[in-house]
Automatic annotation (TrEMBL):
Pfam families: Pentapeptide_4 (PF13599). This is Pentapeptide repeat-containing protein. It comes from Candidatus Avichristensenella intestinipullorum. InterPro entries: 5peptide_repeat (IPR001646), Pentapeptide-BTB/POZ_domain (IPR051082).
Length: 222
């Protein structure tokens, strides 16, 4: 993938401070709701959400665990951050900003990105079944080899979103315009749409076109 739709990678320093295990050294910052910048977190368990939303900027996360739920607000914004092998399952990122982020081989089952802003975001090999993206804005986002079964994208806004070998079985894309997207390498079984206009202009295989038409009660004659 190249050109204007390519997600910009996170801007990370070559000399990040390392926090390993628990985050005792950063407890004050998290407790007081201060932003954190330029830290590599290794095997850290964020077992409690900060009292205020904080921004984690220019940080790397390896094998970290984030708190599920976290109440009725998103505890974090992530700017210029890279995640590898992390568990974000059930994390509430409603209305959060995720700009210039990469997630590789992470688990985000049931995570909520409702009304979030995802800009220049790359997901690779992630388990994201039952995740929620309703009313989110996705701009220059790449999903590669991810599982998004039963994920909900209802009325999300897509701009330069690219899909490669993803599992979208039962995913709800009602109200999402898929024009210009190449979906041929993805599993669209039982994908939920309001009508065929939502896939108008998308690139589909003949099998996918027939499958989606059948789900909506239409007929495709080839």
């Amino acid at each position: 993938m190249s050109g204007r739709g390519t997600p910009r990678p996170p801007e990370l320093s070559d000399a990040l401070e390392t926090a390993e295990g628990r985050i005792d050294a950063l407890e004050t910052a998290l407790r007081d709701g201060e932003d954190v910048e330029g830290v590599r977190f290794v095997s850290v368990v964020f077992d409690q959400a900060p009292p205020f939303r904080i921004t984690l900027r220019g940080c790397a996360f390896e094998r970290c665990v984030f708190p599920a739920g976290a109440g009725d607000r998103a505890p974090f914004d992530f700017i210029d951050c890279a995640f590898r092998g992390c568990d974000l399952s059930g994390l509430n990122l409603e209305r959060a900003a995720l700009h210039r982020v990469s997630l590789t081989e992470c688990r985000a089952t049931g995570a909520s990105f409702v009304e979030a802003s995802l800009r220049d975001a790359a997901f690779s090999g992630c388990q994201m079944d039952y995740s929620l993206f309703a009313l989110a804005r996705l701009e220059r986002v790449q999903m590669a080899r991810c599982s998004l079964a039963q994920a909900v994208f209802t009325d999300a806004k897509f701009q330069s979103v690219h899909w490669e070998s993803c599992r979208l079985t039962g995913a709800d894309l009602c109200g999402v315009r898929l024009k210009g997207m190449d979906l041929r390498t993805n599993d669209l079984t039982a994908m939920v749409l309001r009508d065929l206009r939502e896939v108008s202009g998308a690139v589909l295989s003949a099998e996918q076109a027939c499958l989606l038409a059948a789900l909506l009660g239409a007929q495709v004659k080839i």
